[in-house]
Design goal:
Chain B is mostly helical. Chain B is built from eleven helices and two strands. Chain C has two domains: 167 residues, Rossmann fold, CATH 3.40.50; 73 residues, no CATH class. The radius of gyration of chain C is 18 Å and the shape is globular. Classes of the chains: A mainly alpha, B mainly alpha, C alpha/beta.
Chain lengths: 315, 290, 246
């Protein structure tokens, strides 16, 4: 298993030398959404607290670093941490309200969706964030402004993000924190009775998850150069975030990555195909169908299924 | 503040509340019987609206008659959803059911988007132009008819649940599904019928609303949130609560529109949802939730 | 300073119109096995919930080792040295038996390797070694009961609250688990148990407390309690208190 991962990693590192610009872009797409999915995985997969509003964190991080760069000249390399911190603050608020008030299951989902929508509406109606027009970032190609002329640099940044988030998830998995999260996911009351401070660990998971997602917002802003409230706070983005880990395997290390490798190309193809015929939104139908299929036939996701059949690794 | 405006707002809100009540009653029935949260509720309503629009534009059927067809079609959809999809995961952890209904919502909303496009449409009905004046207040006949039909449907549902065998089986299954199984109830079929009825309610509600408001596929989420607001306030699983809650929320929204700018309406709706989530647990009438 | 390990002082709890527990007081000495019995609905599990922090009492105090437990969250109560099992067992279904017990062990041994070692030992002790890597969701009921016991034991408690741990077991299984509990007690863990199986409770307990309708109606060694008129009345009705000898 380790050998396979090492080989895959080596391949990914040298791949840009052989790929066309379009292919590089596709991989950036894969890595970036794998990163966001992994960040979500910490609270949504490992801890089992389903959030359908993670786009809120992307949006906060994106707008924060974009505005800091545009108005205060602050380099996004620092701005990303401030954006991440702000997203974490929002995450703490949502987590506190949700967990303190005992919101579980669908109540918690509703709470996260409500917050994301509130952020979206506020951003839509606030002049400082550019209202419905949003923000446009000037392309300078200056690395100090987190902009790169060469697409391939973005490739390595996105790859680095994905590996970083996966590393954090791996650390969590191997330590008490991760064990406690899986206990909380399965049965919170039983976990409490065994000495697990469930509130504290859920808050920790939420904070880390929202921070990482917020950092991702900076990448989003400085890769796409335009931020619109409906795109960056909207439910479609939240769906993009959660569908990869769910299809790939929520609560597993490789689930979000596998999910992204499966879904991102699919999404690209369907978007390109259907958009030509004026059918935008069709790829979301596919996502909906996949969610249904996964729940009915592969509830643990693709990775555990594959692992079982190839009999990979024991723990 | 002009008192006639306030009274008008109250009246409009009250009349429109019939639709909200119908919508909420459908959602709470589904939750009450199966403990399933229908995230696709608003999207089903939107399909009810579009079916009414299709009936009106292609077949010339007035929505005030066509709502029966919409209800029937949505019944079939709801029945199929429960039978084919939800029944399979009835014993699975709750997250699965949430994800399933989210998936259904995605499919429904985006299928509508693909089929009908993103632009808002409206249904024409001869009734929409008719108003009756009571002094300085006017009564929208369309709203009045909508209210009347909604009340009749809710009453019919109430009678169904209390007087018919199937209805009683449904209440039994809601109370104690294991017990219902033991006495020979085909619980899965009861569940499917319950979902069908819940969907039919919201399909009818959609048809009834279609001449009054413009609608587009993206309205699904807004409708769902409104329904959740009502049902959580009124108490998850309580029919009376859903009914009363629908009227209350509609009046509140209507009064709110008198005093607030329209762009803030959605914001108020979501903020209200947050508040209700934090302050609920059993709502006004409800049983405890999952 | 009292010598009692656990002391309930005037504990009361009401739910709406129902007074579930009324002025409940008793002591437990270190090393003791105390049986808590009473007819169905008497409030025994409510008492457990009050002691372990899942419910907050309206009045009264729960003192463990001279320290009040009232207001502590369940996880804090466990950390102080008091572990409980649930009447309807609650395994972590997706985790293996080993991982289940490890969760308990991690409380006092934060390092995963040390926790795993301790968990293995506890699993061996309760006799679930053959199922170490099985998913908890796939176990039979007696196995789940042992798992529930093992998990609580892994937290290295000084007082173990067992809630109807023998319910649903056949006589052979009961004998086995009785032996297990005795062994646990001999190793220094005090035990407070709720049980309906009278024979088991009588043979296991040093002392017994009887609750009926939320109130303590008798307390003392098993033999004394068994013949106590109030106890007979509570279980069988007052016709039996002075029943003619057969």
């Amino acid at each position: 298993m380790r050998v396979a991962c090492a080989l895959a990693l080596a391949a990914l590192l040298v791949l840009p030398l052989f790929l066309s610009s379009y292919a590089v872009t596709l991989f950036i797409f894969i890595f970036f959404y794998a990163y966001l999915g992994q960040a979500w995985n910490i609270v949504g997969g490992y801890a089992g607290q389903l959030s359908a509003g993670h786009a809120a964190f992307v949006g906060v991080g994106a707008y924060a670093s974009a505005m800091l760069s545009m108005h205060a000249g602050l380099t996004p390399w620092i701005g990303m941490f401030i954006g991440g911190a702000l997203s974490a603050c929002l995450g703490v608020v949502i987590g506190y309200l949700g967990f303190r008030f005992g919101l579980r299951g669908f109540y918690f989902v509703l709470l996260t969706v409500a917050f994301a929508e509130i952020c979206r509406i506020v951003a839509l109606n606030t002049e400082a964030t550019g209202g419905a027009q949003g923000l446009y970032i000037m392309f300078t190609g200056n690395p100090r402004q987190f902009q790169f002329q060469d697409n391939r640099v973005y490739y390595y940044v996105a790859l680095g993000l994905m590996l970083g988030a996966t590393g954090i998830a791996a650390w969590i998995e191997r330590h008490r924190f991760g064990a406690y999260l899986s206990a909380i996911r399965d049965d919170e009351a039983a976990a409490e009775a065994l000495g697990v401070d469930t509130f504290r660990y859920k808050m920790l998971a939420m904070t880390i998850s929202s921070f990482l997602t917020g950092v991702g917002g900076t990448f989003y802003a400085f890769y796409l150069f335009s931020l619109q409230p409906n795109a960056v706070f909207g439910i479609p983005l939240s769906v993009e975030i959660i569908i990869r880990p769910i299809v790939g395997g929520a609560g597993t290390l490789l689930g979000p990555i596998l999910g992204s490798f499966i879904l991102s190309p699919l999404a690209e193809v369907s978007r390109a195909y259907f958009q030509a015929g004026g059918w935008s939104g069709a790829h979301l139908i596919m996502y909906g169908g996949l969610l249904i299929a996964v729940v009915l036939f592969l509830p643990q996701g693709a990775y555990p299924f594959i692992a079982r059949h190839l009999r990979l690794g024991q723990r | 503040m002009d008192p006639t405006l306030v009274v008008q707002g109250l009246l409009n809100g009250f009349l429109f509340g019939g639709v909200y009540s119908l919508m909420a009653v459908g959602l709470t029935l589904i939750f009450g019987v199966m403990r399933v949260v229908n995230f696709a509720h608003g999207d089903m309503m939107v399909w009810g609206m579009y079916l009414a629009w299709l009936a009106s534009t292609r077949l010339g059927v007035d929505p005030y008659l066509g709502f029966l067809g919409c209800a029937a079609a949505l019944f079939a959809l709801g029945f199929a959803t429960q039978r084919v999809l939800v029944n399979r995961i009835i014993d699975a952890p709750h997250e699965m059911q949430i994800l399933l209904m989210l998936g259904v919502a995605l499919v429904l909303e985006n299928a509508a988007l693909v089929a009908f496009g993103p632009d808002p449409v409206r249904v024409r009905s001869p009734l929409t132009a008719v108003t009756v004046w009571l002094g300085p207040i006017f009564v929208d006949v369309a709203r009045l008819v909508t209210f009347g039909v909604a009340i009749v449907l809710t009453l019919a549902l109430y009678l169904f649940l209390t007087k018919t065998d199937l209805g009683r089986s449904m209440r039994a299954a809601a109370d104690n599904s294991y017990g219902a199984l033991v006495i020979g109830t085909d619980v899965r079929r009861v569940y499917a019928v319950a979902f069908g009825i819940g969907a039919a309610c919201v399909g009818a509600a959609g048809a009834l609303v279609s001449p009054i408001l413009p609608f587009s596929p993206s309205g699904g989420l807004t409708a769902s949130v409104a329904a959740f607001n009502i049902v959580i306030i009124g108490g998850m699983g309580s029919l009376v609560g859903a009914f009363v809650g629908g009227l209350l929320v509609s009046v509140a929204e209507s009064l709110g529109a008198v005093f607030l700018a329209p762009s803030l309406k959605e914001l108020v709706s979501f903020s209200l949802l947050v508040l209700i989530l934090l302050l609920r647990p059993a709502g006004l009438f409800g049983k405890s939730a999952a | 300073m009292s010598a009692a390990l656990l002391a309930l002082r005037g504990l009361s709890k009401r739910f709406g119109g129902l007074q579930a527990i009324r002025d409940l007081s008793f002591d437990m000495a270190p090393g003791e096995v105390l049986g808590l019995i009473g007819p169905n609905g008497a409030g025994k599990t409510t008492a457990f919930n009050l002691i372990s922090g899942f419910l907050v009492p309206d009045e009264g105090d729960v003192v463990f080792d001279d320290r009040s437990l009232v207001g502590l969250k369940p996880h804090a109560v466990c950390q102080v040295g008091l572990a409980r099992t649930f009447q309807i067992v609650r395994p972590f279904p997706r985790l293996s038996v080993l991982d289940n017990v490890k969760i308990g062990a991690l409380g006092r041994r934060p390092a995963m390797a040390a926790a795993r070692e301790h968990a293995r030992a506890v699993i061996a002790r309760v006799g679930l070694e053959s199922k170490m890597h099985a998913a908890a969701g796939a176990l039979t009921l007696p196995e789940r009961k042992r798992l529930e016991l093992a998990r609580a034991l892994a937290t290295e408690p000084r007082l173990l609250l067992l809630d109807e741990v023998m319910a649903g077991l056949n006589p052979t299984e009961i004998v086995a688990i009785l032996g297990l509990i005795e062994g646990i007690n001999r190793s220094g863990v005090s035990i407070l148990l709720i049980e309906h199986n009278m024979r088991a409770v009588m043979s296991l307990s040093h002392r017994i407390v009887v609750i009926s309708f939320g109130e303590k109606i008798a307390e003392g060694p098993p033999a004394a309690v068994a013949n106590h008129p109030k106890v007979v009345e509570a279980y069988l009705g007052d016709a039996y208190v002075h029943a003619p000898q057969a």
